[in-house]
């Protein structure tokens, strides 16, 4: 519980929001790395739409309610988290700052919100686990086409005590990203994103038995197994029976897929178009959120991501039926300043959310529903 008079505690010596960090990132980091983070697939229609989707709704406040205390904490998968958002899985973070995912995880830990670690991280599952003593650690799985390597990653996640698996299903193959194609850029070329494979005993035994492969040969081996276009509901069903870890499926936009996943026994769904980086012209997640919520019922954990930049965006997503949101690029722009920059972005976002909840007349995020929003078109 935070008193609202604390929220105007603004440090004017640092960028005021993630947009300002974005402009700094554009100046500060390698042009190709910035292009990789910032851009989307194809015409970037979905990328643009992800931001515009939030402009289609306005907020309808209630007045004369006691808003001296506003609580933005929620319970997700049985654990209390201090704000209704998570750090989305973002791979290759050392292309922004040497501390990469470790800095982001530490900032998450400080904020008391879950960190979702990408498969293609530059720090291992075990290293990130150690950076999150007080906040949930979710491991995002790119289900490798090599079953044994896949099993090994899942076993490591279980053994190190992660709180959940987040399985991304909107990447049977990589979206066509023209900015990266023009730059001939793939972030793994910098050495980023390989830690979970290089530290994996099964991967090493199978692909590097003599320990003599060059880094470039190792990169090729990883890229060969990273994507799994043959993945189906059947494989997921088998995993559901084999692991006790909660499973959250990321990258669902169709309500019937959502229902099928729920029936299969997964523990939550993230409605997402991968930040506009995969299927070009994929529908904006907010446009399908209410339908997906109606399909899975009121108490099934449902998250959404793509284009969340402000507290008011979080309010709209929650009012339309999400339990929480994920943020991707905003914290990655903050990462130009390492852990400090990520902390700054998170604290600004929570302040913005806190202020706007109070102005909306809401003292607890659980009160949000469609009566607080209006279609602006
Ligand atoms: C640079 C970058 C790398 C990403 N890497 C992954 C990843 O490894 N796994 C994954 O499931 N999603 C990945 N995503 C997608 C994010 O998890 C998330 O869905 C998206 O960034 C949300 O949109 P936003 O950036 O507008 O907040 C990545 C996104 C970006 C921008
Ligand atoms: O960039 C991405 O969005 C992403 O998810 C990814 C994952 C693995 C390899 C390349 C890109």
UniProtKB/TrEMBL annotation:
GO MF assignments? (S)-2-hydroxy-acid oxidase activity; FMN binding; isomerase activity
Spell out the protein name for this chain. Answer: L-lactate oxidase
Q: Where is the FMN hydroxy acid dehydrogenase domain?
A: 10-377
Q: Which residues bind glyoxylate?
A: 36, 142, 177, 274, 277
* Family the entry assigns: Belongs to the FMN-dependent alpha-hydroxy acid dehydrogenase family.
**PROSITE patterns associated with the record:** FMN_HYDROXY_ACID_DH_1, FMN_HYDROXY_ACID_DH_2
Alphabetically ordered keywords of this record: Flavoprotein, FMN, Isomerase, Oxidoreductase
Q: Where does FMN bind?
A: 89-91, 118, 140, 168, 250, 272, 305-309, 328-329
Which co-factor is required? FMN
Q: What is its EC number?
A: 1.1.3.15
A Pfam family (short name) is FMN_dh
Q: Does the keyword Ligase apply?
A: no
Q: Which reaction does it catalyse?
A: mandelate + O2 = phenylglyoxylate + H2O2; 2-hydroxyoctanoate + O2 = 2-oxooctanoate + H2O2; (S)-lactate + O2 = pyruvate + H2O2; a (2S)-2-hydroxycarboxylate + O2 = a 2-oxocarboxylate + H2O2
* Signal sequence, renumbered to the chain: none
Give the taxonomic lineage as stored in the record.
Bacteria, Bacillati, Bacillota, Bacilli, Bacillales
Extract the InterPro entries matched here. Answer: Aldolase_TIM, Alpha-hydoxy_acid_DH_FMN, FMN-dep_DH, FMN_HAD, FMN_hydac_DH_AS
Kindly identify the residues recorded as the active site. Answer: 274
């Amino acid at each position: 519980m935070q008193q609202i008079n604390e929220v105007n505690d603004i440090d004017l010596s640092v960028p005021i929001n993630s947009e300002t960090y974005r402009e700094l990132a554009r100046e500060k980091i390698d042009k190709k790395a910035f292009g990789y983070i910032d851009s989307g697939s194809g015409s970037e229609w979905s990328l643009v739409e992800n931001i515009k989707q939030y402009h289609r709704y306005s907020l309808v406040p209630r007045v004369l309610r006691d808003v001296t205390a506003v609580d933005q904490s929620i319970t997700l998968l049985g654990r209390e988290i201090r704000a209704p958002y998570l750090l989305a899985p973002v791979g290759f973070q050392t292309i922004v700052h040497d501390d990469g995912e470790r800095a982001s995880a530490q900032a998450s830990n400080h904020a008391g919100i879950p960190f979702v670690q990408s498969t293609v991280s530059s720090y291992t599952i075990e290293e990130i686990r150690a950076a999150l003593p007080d906040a949930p650690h979710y491991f995002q799985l790119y289900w490798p086409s090599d079953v044994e390597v896949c099993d090994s990653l899942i076993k490591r996640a279980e053994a190190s005590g992660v709180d959940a698996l987040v399985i991304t299903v909107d990447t049977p193959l990589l979206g066509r990203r023209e900015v990266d194609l023009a730059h001939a850029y793939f972030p793994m070329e910098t050495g980023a994103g390989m830690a979970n494979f290089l530290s994996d005993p099964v991967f090493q035994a199978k692909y590097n038995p003599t320990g003599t492969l060059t880094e470039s040969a190792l990169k090729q081996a990883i890229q060969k197994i990273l994507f799994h276009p043959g993945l189906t509901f059947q494989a997921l069903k088998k995993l559901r029976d084999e692991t006790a870890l909660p499973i959250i499926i990321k990258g669902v936009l169709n309500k019937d897929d959502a229902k099928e996943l729920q029936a299969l026994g997964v523990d939550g769904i993230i409605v997402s178009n991968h930040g506009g980086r995969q299927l070009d012209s994929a529908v904006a997640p907010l446009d399908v959120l209410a339908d997906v919520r109606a399909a899975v019922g009121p108490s099934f954990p449902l998250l959404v991501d793509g284009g969340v930049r402000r507290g008011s965006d979080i309010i709209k997503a929650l009012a339309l039926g999400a339990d929480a949101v994920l943020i991707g690029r905003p914290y990655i722009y903050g990462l130009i300043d390492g852990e400090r920059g990520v902390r700054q972005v998170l604290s600004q976002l929570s302040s913005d959310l806190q202020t706007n909840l109070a102005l909306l007349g809401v003292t607890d995020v659980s009160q949000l529903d469609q009566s607080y929003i209006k279609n602006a078109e």
